[in-house]
Each structure stands twice: as structure tokens, then as C-alpha cells.
Write a structure and sequence with these properties.
The structure is a homodimer of 198-residue chains. By secondary structure, chain A is an all-alpha fold. Chain A has helices at residues 9-30, 38-45, 49-55, 59-70, 85-100, 103-118, 120-147, 157-173, 181-195. Chains A, B: InterPro entries: Homeodomain-like_sf (IPR009057), HTH-type_TetR-like_transc_reg (IPR050109), HTH_TetR (IPR001647), Tet_transcr_reg_TetR-rel_C_sf (IPR036271), TetR_C (IPR011075). Chains A, B: Keywords: DNA-binding, Transcription, Transcription regulation.
Chain lengths: 198, 198
């Protein structure tokens, strides 16, 4: 007979959930994603496979929640607004480049790239919960700049967001290399030239 | 006893190779890539699994050769040079957008995106044999424009190539939508503003 204190079920659930997300984060980094199994995650987390399937229907859904946990969720995506557009966008681009060079983040994003190519539902969740807030934060910073005349009033801000994020995303996804602070600064030079008043 | 004519072995090999590449092209479009097996390709092509493995070490390597076959190989990637930079780049961007909207091409490229996220060797072959010639063709067209003063002499052409291909690639890879001729033209407006002389 043991004398373990009673564990409130909700608290036990929360503990299991945290253990599963932590195990996922570890294993995404350790195991090629194609060979990463729910069984392995369950074993590492010390839970049964069914516990995982009760909360996450697919490996991709679990991956996404683990990424949200890792990235601190969709909050805090606002861009700085010091009044200096070049400084603010430069800080954003250098941070993006640094993040993508971080091996754990890289492993996560590559796994997510694999999943969203074949899982349209997950792709939609990713767009709605992570990409859309990020893109809106950039667009909002550009909108403020347009109001004060730092950007042409007729510049297409949706395409301007693409100019800021697309080149870095593409170099990373296709493994083209060269993603460093110098690249971030060269990219910023061209993007600012594209949107500034004639 | 049959009276079949003798088939020259080299010709039989070539026929098997074509059948395998054609079967791959069909099945990539019909079956989610994660569930597409070499067995299924062998069955469709009417060859043994070992025949496929003799020529292609992995599903990814086979996928890449089937894509090369589909896209007509790395030849013909030169950009038009009519002397009108806007017209030439516009034609390239509209063709790119149209290609990515083509369901068969889309299925192939998504399968390749999946493979290159986890197979560094295949990613390198893809970069060397398809991406590098494409990027060089764009860079060359920009270089010619820079010589005649249509582009600032100090513009970073490597980053300018990224501005042209990155936004489209990213919208496609992340499923952000909106890839049509109007988008191609808006993107071109901003990219030309980025690189033209002050």
C-alpha cells in the first residue's frame, strides 16, 4: 500500500501534456522526422500512445503545438516601433535570420514544412495561428510608416511583406545558404528602395 | 515456343526506365507522397522493385529524375531578352505563377519539398541541377540590364534574384494563396522599384 498524495486529474493531465510536448521537442531534434513515431514520443514522455491520440489526432498536430510552446505562442509578434523604419525592420530581419540558424528551431520548421505539404488542415492552422499574426505585425509597422510618409502611399503592403519574408524563407527552405546579418541588411536595402517615396 | 523478336538489352533498359519515370509521374499526382511506395511504382511500371533500386537508391532520387523529365531538364531556362526588362521579367513571373498553379507540377514540387527537408544529398542535387541554372539565367538577365543602365550598378543581383523568386516560392510553399497574374505584376512593380537607378 502506497501513501502517494492524491493527484488532481486536471493537474495530472497538465503534467502529461507538458511531458508529451517536451518529448516531442527533444525527439524532433534527435530523430529524422520521417522516422519519428508517436510510440517513441509516448515512451519518452512516459505516457501511453492512447494518451497522445486523445489530445492530438496526428503527429503534425502534436508537432504544431510543440512548436507553439517553443516559440512562446502567437503573442509577442509585434514589430518594434522606434519611429525608425530601417532600424525596426533590420532588427526583425536579423532576428529572423538568427532564429532560422538555430538548430532546434530549424529542425522544427523543417518538420512542419514536411507536414504542411501534405496536410491541408494543419497548413491552415499554421497560417491562421502563426503566420497571419506575424504577417499582420509586419504590415501594421509598414502601415504606420506609410502614414508618416516613410513609404509610398500606393505601395502594395501585402507584397511588401512578401519581399521581407519570402527571400529569407526561400533561402532557408531550399538550403541556399548565406543567411546571415549581412544578407539581412542587403535585403533590407533593396526592400526599402522598393517602397520608399520616389 | 514464341517467335518474339529479340530485344536489344539497352533498348529494353531504356523502355523500363521510361515506364518507371512515367509511373512515378502518374502516382505522385494520384497518391499522397508519404504513402507512395516503390512497390506501387514498380507495379504500375510493370517492373520488379529491384529494377528501380538498381537505378535509384531512394524514392527521392527517382522523384527528382521524374521531375527533370517532366520539366524538360535544366535546358531552356534562359530568360527572354527582348531588351525590355519589365516585359522579360513579367513573362518569367507570370509563367512561374502559372506553373505553380498546374496541379501536376504542384504535386511534384510539394513531394520534392518534403524530400529535401530531410535528404541533404537530394537537396544538393536539386540546387545544383535545377535551381542554380534557373537562378543564373535570372541573374544574367539582370546583369545585362545593369550594363545598359536599367538597373543600378551597385544593386546586389543575388538578393535581387531572391526578390523575384522568394515571394512566389513562399506563398506557394506556405499555401498563402493569391498567386495570379495580378500578383506577378504587383511583385514586379516593387522589384523594379528596388533595383532601378535613383
Amino acid at each position: 500500500m502506497t501513501t502517494k498524495p492524491k493527484v488532481v486529474p486536471a493537474r495530472r493531465s497538465e503534467r502529461a501534456r507538458s511531458a508529451i510536448l517536451a518529448a516531442t521537442a527533444e525527439l524532433v531534434f534527435e530523430v529524422p522526422y520521417g522516422r519519428l513515431s508517436i510510440e517513441a514520443i509516448a515512451a519518452r514522455a512516459g505516457v501511453g500512445k492512447q494518451t497522445i491520440y486523445r489530445w492530438w489526432p496526428t503527429k503534425g498536430a502534436l508537432l504544431f503545438d510543440a512548436l507553439l510552446e517553443l516559440s512562446g505562442g502567437p503573442d509577442g509578434v509585434a514589430l518594434p516601433d522606434t519611429g525608425d523604419l530601417r532600424a525596426d525592420l533590420g532588427q526583425f530581419l536579423r532576428a529572423t535570420v538568427a532564429e532560422m540558424a538555430e538548430p532546434r528551431f530549424d529542425a522544427f520548421l523543417r518538420a512542419l514544412m514536411i507536414e504542411i505539404q501534405s496536410d491541408a488542415d494543419l497548413a491552415e492552422v499554421y497560417r491562421d495561428r502563426l503566420l497571419a499574426p506575424q504577417r499582420e505585425a509586419i504590415r501594421e509597422r509598414l502601415r504606420v510608416a506609410a502614414l508618416s510618409g516613410g513609404i509610398r502611399a500606393d505601395a502594395d503592403l501585402e507584397v511588401a511583406v512578401d519581399l521581407l519574408v519570402g527571400p529569407v524563407q526561400t533561402r532557408w527552405a531550399l538550403g541556399l545558404g548565406g543567411l546571415n546579418e549581412g544578407y539581412a541588411d542587403s535585403l533590407l536595402d533593396l526592400v526599402l528602395a522598393a517602397v520608399r517615396p520616389h
